[in-house]
Design a protein that fits this description.
heterodimer, A: globular, B: mainly beta, 7-stranded mixed sheet, 11 strands
Chain lengths: 115, 116
């Protein structure tokens, strides 16, 4: 149980284009989903937190107009990287949790490469 | 032995050794701590957790120790195997209320390399 999937697992896009990453909780309803970014040999940095049906809360330094997050249902959150640049190339990981349970369940990550 | 690279400390051990990975956490108010294992190109995988009302918790081949006085966590892996090779992160948080949530803060991570 408690499986989180991400799609795609990897994506290559050209500079200036937008790319959407999906995060799904497969066997539970996730009231809260989190998006992290991880650069090589570094830790996970929280980008934003989203609750179903409400606007995402972004961490300091994360541009909300560049990283659009939509949490339209209890099983799906999307992260859209708009006007991507090479410096946005990174490993993007989502996680999900249920109200009242401390644990976060992590997805397998999406490798984004912007050329 | 242990070495500190540009970003990620590395611990190299022989198969069968016991490994100890350390973590200093930042918030004295944190009351819930988790260790994650991350293999290359994958998301973090839950290993073991501990709450602040405990100082030790054991799982299968793993033990977590918590020292709140010095804000220190350690993960002990017994009889380390090549399959244990990965990056290990500690994470801290405040236990959320039933209606709210708290975010996880991840430590810098340690790469564990296990030689056969």
């Amino acid at each position: 149980g408690a499986v989180v999937s991400q799609h795609p697992s990897w994506v290559i896009c050209k500079s200036g284009t937008s790319v959407k990453i999906e995060c799904r909780s497969l066997d539970f309803q996730a009231t809260t989903m989190f998006w992290y970014r991880q650069f090589p040999k570094q830790s996970l940095m929280l980008m934003a937190t989203s609750n179903e049906g409400s606007k995402a809360t972004y961490e300091q330094g994360v541009e909300k107009d560049k990283f659009l997050i939509n949490h339209a249902s209890l099983t799906l959150s999307t992260l859209t990287v708009t006007s991507a640049h090479p410096e946005d190339s990174s490993f993007y990981i989502c996680s999900a949790r249920v109200v009242g349970i401390d644990e976060q369940y992590f997805g397998p990550g999406t490798r984004l490469t912007v050329t | 032995g242990e070495s500190v690279g540009l970003h990620l400390p590395t611990l190299s051990v022989q198969e069968g050794d016991n490994s100890i990975i350390n973590c200093a956490y930042s918030n004295s108010a944190s009351d819930y701590f988790i260790w994650y294992k991350q293999e290359s190109g994958k998301g973090p995988q839950f290993i073991i957790d501990i709450r602040s009302n405990m100082d030790k918790r054991q799982g299968q081949r793993v033990t977590v120790l918590l020292n709140k006085t010095v804000k220190h966590l350690s993960l002990q892996i017994a009889a380390t195997q090549p399959g244990d090779s990965a990056v290990y992160f500690c994470a801290e948080t405040l236990s959320p209320s039933n209606s709210g949530y708290s975010t996880l803060t991840f430590g810098k991570g340690t790469m564990l390399l296990v030689s056969p």
